[in-house]
Amino acid sequence: MLIPLYVFIFIAVDLIHWFSFNELQLASQVLHVLFLFLPLLWAFGLLPPLDALLLWGMEQALVFGLGGSPMSSNIRLLLMFGISASVAVCNYFIPSALGVVLFSISTGFLMSLDLSQVGSLCRSPREAFRDSEEVIVYLSLLLVALTEAGLLHHFLSSLDSPSPVAGPQAPVSYLLIVLFGICWALREIQGPYVLGGMFLNPLYPKGMSSVQAFIQKSRRLNNAAAIRRILLYFVSPFAMIAFLSVDKSLQLLHSVYLSIGFTRAFRVVWQSSEDALLQMVVVILVRLAAENNTLPDWEKLGTGGQLLLVGLLIDRATQFFAKLKFALTVLVTSWTEKKQRRQSAGTLLALNASLCPLLLAVITLSALLSAPLLSLFTLPIFLVGFPRPRRSWPGPVGTACPCPDSIFYQQMSGSLASALRLAFARGSLGTLASGSHFLVRFQDRMVWITILEKGYGYCTVNIKGLELQETSCHTVEARRVDEVLEAAFERPERLGFTQGVNLHWGNALIPCAALVVQTYSDARNVLSGIIDSHDHLRKLQEDFLKVLVWLLLRYGVQKHKGNLWNSEVVQGVGGRKSPSSQVAPTTCVQPLETVVMESNVSSPRYRQDSSRSTSFGDWSDEDDIFGPEPARRTVALVTAEAQYGQGSLPGSVEMDSLYENMALSALQPLQPLGLGVGMPTVDQGHNSEVFRNAPCPLPQLNFSCSQSEVFNLPTGWRTAPFPPSRLLQLRHLFPEDWFRFALGRLGPAVQDKNNEDMTKALKEDEVLKELHAQVALSCLISVGAESAFTSPSHVYRLYCGDILWTEGLDWLSSSQELYQLSLCAFRYSFKLLFDQASLGPIESPDDLFSTLEEYERNWYIGLVTENGWHSGVLREKPFLFSLGQDLSMGTYTGRVLSLQEQLVHVGHLNGEGVRGQWANLSWELLYATNDDEERYSIQAHPFMLRNLTVQAADPPLGYPIYSSAPLHIPSL
């Protein structure tokens, strides 16, 4: 279908040329030559699909003919092209030159703004109120520009001048040259390198050790950036409008190219002020160089046409040099890099050297068409890729291949967007243009930023997150990125002459800025010497009881305040309250092993008659010559039995513990543990009121203090199936002093007034104390912590909720809230163990109480595979802790995430190199059908960053793990 379509287009152009327009003679001749090579172009995949051709044509016409910008979506491109073309047509029919000036300025200013934001302001009155200052500034700028243009055109446009650089345009011309020089110099000093990244900037901060030091050292550069911003966005546009408003060619407007030229000129003043300033300076310099000599063809274009031609030439020249640098990088590294050197490398280099004019012709043609320079299989074999829009990909922006690590990029994107706003305003990232690409590096994270469109005071960007360092190719290129960035940002204070040169200039990445971003710092520690230390583990039991007592008392406070626990929605330790239910902040996540087991239970072949008596742990191989092993039941097994009857699941095996590399797709909605598993027991003891025989229903407890009822616990929590003698044997473990201390600190929270007598009465209530002692000791036995911990594996399994079966496990599992409190208490106690081993022991009850409150308020303590961990990151919990196991090394690890301001390094990528590699990726997978995962064209290339570039492509050809929707970022 593609070749017949092009044949039809070629014939149509030829027929139009013969019957109507002689202006199409050159185009017809070129198409006659291309007609002979259509099959070859089709075979090489160089013919653009119809949609790509139309979108590319509209984008080129919008940018260079009408002064617009490439857009972030096809719909926006179609709408903006239609509106811009309508403005040009209206200008052609407006009879008055003054009317053309005023209409062009007003429409150009409005179209240079992101009009989609107007709708969001109208939908959110509060946002509109907050942004009212910005709206007032825009309206003021428009009114001043209209007033200036109208007055200057009315009074000065008719004055005669002997030369183009004399008369009313002369002072404005020199002012524009001065403005350009100042703005260029102030922008250059904002980055670590100057003159296109070749030399180090001596004014840039050196040896940055902290965020505060960087901010302090950057004050002078920030002052320079503020001056540049004022000159570029608030002075230059009015100077350029003054230059255009008094131009004599406005009197000859009623021709097609003059109307289009001035429509573009008055718009690009706002759409891209820096580019417009450069174009006007070039036009002025050409006039100054010509002096009194006349250039008929040049003058015939008028100022608007001259600016259009200069803008097109500057863009094509910029593309040519960027493509040339990309081609030279491919050529040179194909020989100098040992891993890139192939047997045919010498032959290919010799061919390129002998056919150098042909290579330059290919690069020139690629630049003229604004098409990617395609490096075939990323070898030094260069072709012209088919023209396509700047976005390169036809699909909508924002598609990705998510995984558990995506949450870090999602959390980081908001703060990064705020940092980009400051960087755009200061000019730290250089000249901004649609299609520019930047790479952000922080620890093991890589962020790919693409500028989709640009206007007056805003940029629209796409933020992508690449996979963390896992493959060898990724690691090799990440190491080179670190070297390039460290050479720019972490250099010493004093440098020699040779060290002032950028030794990595040939790399695709040029460092350009350091940004302050609030994100998570990820620290991982091997717990050898902590989790396997008997001294530390002996204290874990004591801390567990103290934390559990504190949580039981906190439970009463939360219940009194109305923040009841919800058995349907359970968050992780330290998680925030659910919006749909007031879940207590100390709620813990149900172990995900239960979810995994439930997925097996739901399978038809596991649905057996409930009368079967064999349990999960009873299953064993029939050929086991050593006989059956003793039954081993975990909380997951007990839960499954509770929900699906006491029957067994033949063929099922005991599930492994949770590990940190579980895929996000495995996470399913958490289900509550089974209810009603345990049976209440009848004690025959004769001790205190709490430990005496407890018939069903249990009698009401007689508290000696009226406020004790607040800290009363549910009746089912006192029905543990343990004889009183067993509880009495462990009674000495209950921390009575800590119980009274915690009660004294929490008691005033449930009183209308801080009554010391009431608090004292609470502490002396023996029934309340014995109630909490019974529940705490019952939980201690049920989780298997009756004796001191001696095994790291036991600690790890208990932390994961993988509790070995005990006689009290059924009773504990019957109460979702008590089970979660117990699991939460153990995780808190392990975090206490970790902190005391690292920072020293906690000696006073005040310190312990403050530490536990800190855990509840600012920490998430759980597993990385839990939903609470992911929600904690997205909600920006200040700290997160997880216990993990490294199976390959046989060690246990502690992982701590800390949310804080960090310095992230940003580098500017060679945009043409990126487009060329993406074009090769598209050609290779769609035309050559080479989908080999180990193919040469995606292997690590330290100079071109080939593997990272392939990752950053849109799915299905690439695989970024996070991709944001188009983000509107103000840049004023």
TrEMBL record:
Record's GO cellular component terms: membrane
Main location: membrane
Positions of the Pecanex C-terminal domain: 794-964
InterPro entries for the chain: Pecanex, Pecanex_C
Membrane topology field: Multi-pass membrane protein
Region span, Disordered: 600-622
Keyword terms of this UniProt record: Membrane, Transmembrane, Transmembrane helix
Superkingdom in the source lineage: Eukaryota
UniProt subcellular location: Membrane
Pfam families per the UniProt record, alphabetical: Pecanex_C
Residue stretches spanning the membrane: 5-21, 33-56, 100-123, 135-156, 168-186, 226-246, 345-363
The keyword Transmembrane is assigned to this record: yes
PANTHER family xref list: PECANEX, PECANEX-LIKE PROTEIN 4
Family under the similarity heading: Belongs to the pecanex family.
Protein name: Pecanex-like protein
